[in-house]
């Protein structure tokens, strides 16, 4: 997977200021989506095999180094949102793996002040750490009353997203809305409506009922991942289920929060709903592994 992430940096297709895709001719492949699943598999497998020495420096350092490398490649694409989601998943798995609380406390006491300082530096435009479009999105989100053209452009999509959700009412306008140009979707007022902002279209066409159903279904899948993990016969299965559940939950929250203007605009797909081959394949692989882990428990009970 690191090889494919390196290929993206060298030969990837650039779109909207980010180099995240490999063009295969007949389709495009986004390695960062599959990297989410591969990282969870790696961490669960390595920690399971070294659980007796988990609290040693060598084991912890190996997990951290081999996890940070792909995260760093994804950050350089740049893909800050995916980087943050994967990092949260990484932290959750480490917390649930059985690392001694003294180590966790020491890491938190050390890293939180450093993270605050680094975060402040990163948010300064003069630092050059983030891409220009990332600074613009953060700036437009923090200064909603700004009249600058770049700020208006960045807010336009999210404002239309809220308009689409609100216009759906209780039960929505129905599919296609009979080609009504006043519809946010049919009037083409919402670019990326089939990918990052698909939840806005759900709200417009299916209304509050449909949007709530999508949220509840995603929440139910996350809960089921946690339940399956708690019943898994091995640490390996337990860590994967919890890791995938965290990934699914955080990514779903961020996507919906962006479409409702709770968070700055970013580029995360809504799991199992957004258009995108690599994203769908990675989610299906993840949920397939969770189901397999659940079946292993059932076999053990027979």
TrEMBL record:
Cell compartments where the protein resides: Membrane
Transmembrane segments: 34-49, 56-74, 80-96, 103-123, 206-227, 239-263, 275-295
GO molecular function, one term: lipid-linked peptidoglycan transporter activity
Main localisation: membrane
UniProt keyword Transmembrane present: yes
Pfam families listed in its UniProt record: FTSW_RODA_SPOVE
UniProt entry tagged with the keyword Membrane: yes
Record's keyword terms, sorted: Cell shape, Membrane, Transmembrane, Transmembrane helix
Annotated membrane topology: Multi-pass membrane protein
An example Gene Ontology biological process: regulation of cell shape
GO CC aspect terms: cell division site; plasma membrane
PANTHER family in UniProt: CELL CYCLE PROTEIN
Name this polypeptide is given: Cell cycle protein, FtsW/RodA/SpoVE family
Species whose genome carries this gene: Eubacterium ventriosum ATCC 27560
Lineage: Bacteria, Bacillati, Bacillota, Clostridia, Eubacteriales
């Amino acid at each position: 997977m690191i090889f494919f992430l390196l290929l993206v940096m060298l030969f990837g297709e650039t779109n909207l200021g980010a180099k995240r895709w490999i063009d295969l001719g007949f389709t495009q492949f986004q390695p960062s989506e599959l990297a989410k699943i591969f990282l969870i598999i790696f961490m669960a497998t390595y920690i399971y095999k070294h659980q007796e020495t988990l609290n040693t420096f060598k084991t912890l350092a190996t997990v951290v180094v081999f996890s940070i490398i792909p995260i760093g490649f994804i950050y350089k694409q740049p893909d800050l949102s995916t980087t943050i989601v994967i990092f949260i998943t990484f932290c959750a798995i480490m917390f649930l793996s059985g690392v001694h609380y003294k180590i966790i406390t020491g890491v938190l006491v050390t890293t939180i002040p450093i993270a605050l300082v680094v975060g402040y530096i990163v948010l300064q435009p003069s630092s050059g750490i983030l891409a220009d479009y990332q600074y613009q999105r953060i700036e437009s989100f923090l200064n909603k009353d700004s009249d600058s053209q770049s700020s208006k452009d960045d807010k336009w999509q999210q404002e239309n997203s809220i308009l689409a959700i609100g216009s759906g009412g209780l039960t929505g306008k129905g599919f296609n809305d009979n080609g009504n140009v006043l519809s946010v979707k049919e009037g083409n007022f919402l670019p990326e409506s089939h990918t990052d902002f698909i939840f806005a279209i759900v709200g417009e066409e299916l209304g509050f009922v449909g949007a709530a159903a999508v949220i509840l279904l995603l929440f139910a899948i996350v809960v089921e991942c946690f339940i399956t993990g708690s019943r898994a016969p091995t640490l390996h299965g337990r860590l994967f289920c919890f890791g995938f559940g965290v990934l699914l939950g955080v990514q779903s929250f961020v996507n919906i929060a962006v479409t409702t203007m709770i968070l700055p605009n970013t580029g995360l797909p809504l799991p199992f709903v957004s258009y995108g081959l690599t994203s769908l394949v990675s989610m299906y692989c993840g949920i397939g592994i969770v189901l397999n882990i659940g079946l292993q428990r059932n076999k053990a009970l027979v």
